[in-house]
Amino acid sequence: MNTSPKPLSKTLLPLEQQLLNYHPCNEQEEKDRLVILNALRTFPDVFTRKNETAHMTASAWVVNPARDHVLMVYHNIYHSWSWLGGHADGETDLLSVAIREVKEESGLHTVQPLSPDIYSLEVLTVDGHEKHGHYVSSHLHLNLTYLLEADDKYPLQIKPDENSGVAWFSPEKAIEASTEPWFQARIYRKLNDRLQLFRA
Q1: Alpha carbons 193 and 86: distance in angstroms, whole number
Q2: I need a surface site. Which of 2, 142, 171, 182 has the fewest CB within 10 A?
Q3: What is the per-residue pLDDT across 180-194, written as a single tens digit (0 to 9) for each?
Q4: What is the C-alpha separation between 56 and 44, in angstroms, rounded?
């Protein structure tokens, strides 16, 4: 089976170019980048939840200015402390999506990217669940993660329809707080390891 991306059209979407410029750090990212690129080129509705099989999302690894704490929320659906993020819902600027979601989920007003570039990428499985009284079938999140900074001295506020806790953790404690083993081993540890590049 040929897993190579489909040939590019003459005009690249900015997000496609970002993905092509991105250097995967491991086999997971190499394979997941191909999946995301193919989805972008195949499904015109991949930025919306109308595509019930797979759609684009953006997440954030939010650090404080000292880079010694990361922000987590206690996610009501997954019953776990987790990173912040959400659905593109038609927006193609996924960095803007990540910033918007952090503000909505944490109550923080000032959040800034440490880089405009993709920090990591991953294809995430989402089990079927109830949301707002309706069943959502199992599907994939085609996720891009960005590294953001926020001041850990500012007050935090939960978003009751999505989370029941917002708190700063040391990078290692953030991994321990999660109850999702795949995220602990494959995602959060990777994000922490890459954070070393942004420390003074």
Answers
A1: 23
A2: 2
A3: 999 999 999 999 999
A4: 11
